[in-house]
Amino acid sequence: MKKRNNGLDNKNLKNTKKFVKIIFLDIDGVLYTTSHYTWLSVIEKQKSADKYGFLFDPKCIANLNEIIEKTGAKIVISSTWRRRGIDYLRECFKYRGINAEIIDLTPISTIDNLFFCRGEEIEQWLIENGLPEKIAVLDDSSLGDGYDDWKFFYKTNMTTGITEEINFNK
Q: What tens digit of pLDDT does each residue of 9-27 get?
């Protein structure tokens, strides 16, 4: 398979410090984990959802809050949850104790097929908004051809989600 040019070397990408540190955040497999869902619903026989949907793993919330506190990073939601809107996500994060500032959502791919490429959506956001000083992409799925090689892509595990090993020094 031919490796795609992911475009971050293109001259059309503005180099701006408008945002110093950005985390592109997926939700399922990063904050919502299968192990937490199983523990709540099967083992503890507790509700596994609230008014915003499936509950996030408290360890993952703590890990994200620690990263935000240490780095001052802002959040851009790249998850399919972004279809619910930025106000909904801001309310959800606040309600669930996530101390992160959600500044934007990545654009939703308009490709007319069943598959989308999250890497392309993130790249499009970077083209439109400029390249921050530091970037982290947190996702449990592939970003698409050529994008999984990004040095700032941290692939999480659907079972454990975001861990304390994620940092901006990679």
A: 444 455 555 668 999 999 9
